[in-house]
Batch of 3 targets.
Target 1
Amino acid sequence: MERPSLESNLPDTHEEGKLYVVDSLNNLNKLNVCPDESQRSLDEEDSAGGTGDRMAGSNTRNQCLFFVTFILTLIISLALVSFAIFLILQTKSEVDQISSRLLSEKKNIEELKKINNIILKHLNQSGIKE
């Protein structure tokens, strides 16, 4: 019951109390979550500049992460494209070998047809029939 009357009389004190509680909770959270070395860096950030520096550091970190991811993506895509080109060239050489074999086989088949025709003509001329 006394609290509402104090709050109505001292609104600035109540707001300061809220800020103090929030700061205390933040400090407690830092102690529980962060190890000693990172706590020092957090304390230095708090004393150095506050949220502006944190946002700039976070922005820089995000840009670096994006840039590294972009470069890795480019390297991986370059490797994949190189592999695809290698496979295309390998396939082209295989196709060239197969087509040269087919051409040589076609020539062999044509020669065999000519030899067969010559044999048939010779058999017909000699009078031997089946």
Target 2
Amino acid sequence: ISKGPGNSKSSKSTAVPPGPPMYLDLVYIPNHSNRKNVDVEFFKRVRSSYYVVSGNDSAAEEPSRAVLDFLLEGKAQWDSNMQVTLIPTHDSEVMREWYQETHEKQQDLNIMVLASSSTVVMQDESFPACKIEL
């Protein structure tokens, strides 16, 4: 297959390049946690202490329940049980259901989900926020 200037994009954008796992402090799950761009291989290879889970569009399946399940499946294959924290940017029905239905497995895999209701108040403004210590 030619990889010339006109053919530089692969036909499958979800492919994670071969190689050893990458360890990162903070990862934003791509494309509003949509399953079109993230698979279980992503979580096997991209290992992070914190994952930001965005998406608040149930019609577009964002965040995707499948992506959250892929995290559990991928994390189960890590060679360590390091703490992982999920940071949802919105309170969604998908996230609440997944949290409740998989809570025991999350505990077994050392995964914590932060509440999305934290608020910072500064002068006359208030906004959602999350403190992360790296």
Target 3
Amino acid sequence: NNSSQLSSLPLHILLYVNGVYYIFYFLATLAMIIYKSQVFSYPDDFLAPDLAVLFLMAILEVPRLYLGFKGNLTEAEGPLGLSLGLTVGSVLLCVYLLLWQSYVLWADVLLNAVLLAAYALESGLKVTAIAAFVS
């Protein structure tokens, strides 16, 4: 009877921390977009895509974290793999906000760099966990 536990505690903690950080990230980025739209001459056709990317990212974050927790706790590679796929989407949206939104402030760079680092670390832990579950 092999009852070894394969779920990853570091991954579980990081998913939780990322969930909390994302709430802060979302609110701070939204506040900065509002600030930039008031302070700078923000072209109307650029305000909507910047906001759309932020909200799409928030919508992606919910199933991304849910599937990450579920896959890790049930030691199932399927949900963890889907979460990893959604992380790729989140990374692309994060890179958009880092490089291509209308105005990028130093605070945007800092917030996005921390989020990208967290995504990278989390992805590494997900791949390791998937490898443990499959073997």
